Amino acid sequence: MEWWVILLVFVGFLLLMLATGMPVAFSFFLINMVGAATVLGGEVGLRQMMLSIYSGLTSFTLAPVPLFVFMGEILFHSGMAIRTLDVLDKWMGRLPGRLSLLTVAGGTIFSNLSGSTMANTAMLGSLLVPGMQSRGYRKPMILGPILGTGGIAMIIPPSALAIVLGTLAHLSIGELLLAGILPGLLMAVLYFTYIIGRCKLDPSLAPAYEVEKVSLGEKLADLFKYVLPLTTIVFLVVGLIFLGVATPTEAAAMGSVGSIALAACYGAFNLGVLKRAVRGSLKVTVMTFMIIAGSITFSQILAFTGATRGMVEFVAGLPLDPILILICMQLILILLGAFMEQISMMMISVPIFMPVVHALGFDPIWFGILMLLNLEIAFTTPPFGLLLFVMKGVAPEDTTMGDIYRAALPFIVCDLIAMALIMAYPAITLWLPGLMR
């Protein structure tokens, strides 16, 4: 059977099951069982599928996922996030769109402290929307910055999704995490530029208001008391990986211990906080691991049938410049992102795209960051971007999905500009991993 027929059958049936509303994990398990029984050799194939799942889920590289999520849950439930926003608010002065800028600044900092994009968006929305609404901010400047900045958690470490991608694509987790730092900061700069420029052109989007004057001494005192201590957690995660002192798993464990210790120092850690953090971490981790388990055999079936090899040979033989093929892959991801959630996109695309990336000679870490950025765009892409629905839950009552779609579009454009810059200048992603090497 031709490779393209095999690929079409498996991917087509998978998309069909997802379209019926079947959960992603169960869709993969069903198609894997059929594939293992028919392609890998009946009972022997099913046994091999179970062994592969066990081997994949007991991998040491997946251990940071629950630890990073737990770290962020502790920081959110302990209230340290609220205090940090209060401090940043005092430093914003009378900048145009100051509360929108506060959203970007706060979200970027929290991205360094949480591996959960949805938690980042929900937290920013619940904390900042009421204040922005009371100050007369219009919906584009209320909703857009929260949507855009919430997704930065997918790029800046610690990113749980980056670990899942690194595991599926067999990339260095440490290098992939470090490679996301500069692209994430680039996205924040683009958001800042857009907000200030848009508010200068149309001040009615974010009306100016009287700001309580705070002395420099008080600002510095709050900065040293509530914000700078958070850098210890950033160092425990990013710094230890960069210095080569700890693996990503060890750094994640240190970050979790550090977040508990810091919450305890502020008197904000108790049994209730621990229970809520553990419950939230378990929900995210179980969902993620179930989907990873389903993707493992899917990749093996494609490889065993020769579909992966045939596709790589076909793409490598196309009379196109490799960069055009890369752009086509990004366009496919953007299209998928309008209808699917991120882990599902990775399950389908990683087994197909990564062999092509290696065959064309692209740096896999660089491509991994491009893919993460594309997944971040998918989070806010109408009509089914997951963050759009999270935002709906914390938005003002009279907000429609159309309002949310329109608010998200300028920030999607900023993300596309960031992607173009990263494609043109790979050093943006590869400089820090190169220093670590």
Notable traits:
437 residues; mainly alpha; 0% strand; 22 helices; 77% helix
Structural features, described:
This protein is mostly helical and 437 residues long. It is 77% helix and 0% strand. The protein contains 22 helices and no strands. Helix 6 runs antiparallel to helix 11 (181-201) and helix 9 (160-169) packs across helix 18 (342-360). The protein is globular, with a radius of gyration of 22 Å. The two termini are 44 Å apart. The model has no long low-confidence stretch (mean pLDDT 80).
| Strand segment count | 0
CA distance, first residue to last residue? 44 Å
What would you call the quaternary organization? Answer: single chain
Helix tally? 22
Structural class: mainly alpha
Strand content: under 5%
**Which sequence of SSEs, written as H and E, runs from N to C?**
HHHHHHHHHHHHHHHHHHHHHH
Biggest sheet character:
none
**What is the number of independent domains?**
1
Average pLDDT over all residues: 80
Q: What is the CA-based Rg, rounded?
A: 22 Å
**Backbone shape:** globular
